[in-house]
Amino acid sequence: MSFIRDVFTRNRGLKLFSLLLAFVLWIILIPEEKTYSERTLTVPLETRNIPVDVELVERPPGTVDITVRASNRVLNEISPATVSARLDLGRASVYQEMYPMNRSAITVPQGAEVVGISPNIVRLKLEKTRQMDLEITPMIVGKVGEGFRIEKVAVTPARIPVKGPESKIRTRDRLTTSPVDVSGLVRSATLEADIILPRPDLRLATPLTRVRVDITLEEDKRASNGKGPGPQ
Q: Which of 56, 131, 186, 227 has the most CB atoms around its CB within 10 Å?
């Protein structure tokens, strides 16, 4: 018993120092690839493979938190730029709103492991795509030259196809043009203007982005008849 007691009590300070030294050497000499840690990163959430006949009307969160486990050497090289989160909507349905975030949706560097995803379920909403031909109404601004009035305004083409979510496009919708300034105009003219959509959810279903606006003028006889006789 005295021998055992001597083992723990004799030269206690030296033994504690030796133990501390051994621990420090273990920390210094152990390879970084043999020690593991975890890190949580916030990365952008991408949506991909959206079917061609549907629209994403309510988007999922812009980012997700990814917890990664790896050796210290690998972990030191991991950043949001080396981790990606992609939600594949190739089999998505307009009847589904909740989508699980699986580990297969996360890409991390070799040697790292995904141990946590938050949120692990994301909400989004899809709608069927609808296409419709909408009429274009020109926006005329300014006043033509004195003694003239606008007889006719014609837009070419008069209607163009527009696409968008079925709840966002309506038969009563109208397209407009950028302002067409007729200030001081004294003869008929053809001008060009940009097409303006009624709301940002819609998009043109044609490469055409500008229309031709034909302004036809005629003399304003009412203005002429309203003038009194000139000086005698």
A: 56
